[in-house]
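User: We ran a pulldown and think these components assemble together. Before we commit to crystallization trials, I'd like a predicted model of the whole complex to look at. Sequences follow.
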Amino acid sequence: MIPLLRGLASALGMGMVLAGVAALVAPAHELHEALDQLRAGTAVAACALGALMILLRGPISRLGAASGPTTAATVVLLLLTALAVSAPSLVPAGALDVDLSLRHAAPSPGHLLGNDAQGRDLLAATALAAPVTLAVALSTALVAAALGGLMGLAGGWLGRGVDLGGRLLTDTLLSAPSLVFQLLVVTAFQPEGFTRLGYLVLALSATGWMGAARLVRAEVQALRGAGWVESARILGLSELTIVRRHVLPHVLPLLGAWTAAAAANAMLAEAALSWLGLGIQPPLLSWGGMVQDLRGPTATLLDALPAVLIATTALSLAVLADGLAGTKRTAPNS
Amino acid sequence: MAGSLIAALTRRIVYAAALCWLLATLLFAITEVAPPAPPPPPPSLGEEPTEDFCRERLGTTPMDRYVARMTTVGRSWTPPCAPITTTLGERLPKSARLAGFAIALAWPLSLLAALTQGAFAGRAIDRVITGGAVLLHAWPVFLLAAAAQRAAPTLGLPSVGSGSAANQLVSLVLPGATLAMLLASAWVRTLRAAAVDAFEGPRVRAARARGLAEATVVGRYVLPSVLRPAITLLGLALPRLVGGTVVIERVFGWSAMGGWLTEAAVRRDLPVLTAITLLTGVVVALAGALADTANAALRTDGGHE
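Assistant: Here's a predicted model for the assembly, 639 residues in total across the polymer chains.
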């Protein structure tokens, strides 16, 4: 299993780097200003993520081989990542043209999966929505993990006033209907295009970091009283060194598992917002927004493709999260 | 004893009050910082009053507005500017019914599923339930709701909540079941862990070795351990009674708290937002206190430590 995953990560990584370089070097055909920016952005991301995938093929294959479902989830996520960053470079010009005469058209030689409710090529639309959806979900999870991790670490390690303040903030945001704050942040400033993506990530992560804070705080508090921490203090190690060397190795695996689960939740939350028409808006596409097409009476089975992709990605992330949680280190670091 | 109880209760109340104050202040801050909403079109004769008319003169400085916002409930800023308490009286019972039905359905079901999984850990039934829960949890809620809605005509169930009491009860079934599935899929995963821990723990082994009947073992040694997180989860779900469920309400055409909240957020209708958010905050604090009390009672009645 491990060699298989290692080989897959290397192959996909190389493919992504090649696609990225090719997209950066080749002349750009105009899709639309925002989509051209998307293509440029994903080309850079393809190079970066491809290189990362090649460099980290060892850890990826070790984590992924933990169990059968985890392996499947890792494979799915690797493939999705590779497809998402390469797709915008492969979509031909004119693929996203709105042609109302082709609404819900069946598959044809020019449109492999048929057309969606606006007459766009369904395959192209789904492919272009992929990097946006995945980027928002991953960014939200990472920002929320960073925010929550820091809060939990500060509260758990420093205790007393800092802890009380942290707990108050955490509980306040947990009590509020998260949708209110998300909608307020996203709609109040009326951002558009890529700025809107940034606000969306901000809104979703600002209402999603609390779980990480609680998790990290509990773990840090338990570790703070451990015997070897006292010994380290007596030996004269600085607080920062103690945290770095003795606390983080225990906290980071838990946080990693939490991040995977948070990415799944972020994906579903963004899908719900986009489905309400308040999340990612044209010209940028998202899978959640495309699911709106299922509402009409003329919706076909193929229109469910974005929905199936959302569910598959969320499922894979959740399975991965469970797998990562199982690798928590229990023995203290000497 | 009573003194410490009162002290603990007072601490909780002060904490909850601080929480509510922080919530309201955050809301106020966001709406103050955001650029003003675009002005509404001028009204023609006989039309409802505009938003400008709805906004009471709350003072020119932010401090005046802040004080006014914190001390009065007032009217909505959205035409027809109904008093918030009136709209609350119309919409809150609907959300409470929906969420109450869903929780009443999901909670015992999750408990039963978790106990089954704990008793048969590693076997087929355990994997089936886990797989089902993970799958349901990954599937976006608006798709579940849309699928249920499409199934409504074939099952002969009305989906909009209006009309006679019997009709209202039946119309609860679909949206309530959808919400219940959503809640149960999240709860089962947490409760399974607790159940498996309890079944594999030393007390269950000792009890079985003593020759106690399985039902007694489960009732005395497993159930209390699973009830503890179950009650905490129940407490965390109670705010749904007030906050509503936006997507389910929209799909099934219910005009309850969720839809009201979304509209208010988009229109930056601060009085409505403050009122609903504070109400949710109070319910959260109460639910948390109730859950903690129940768990404390469970601990004193529970097994021999």
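Residues 328-334 of chain A have pLDDT under 50 and may be disordered. That may be worth checking against your pulldown data before setting up trials.

User: Thanks, that helps.
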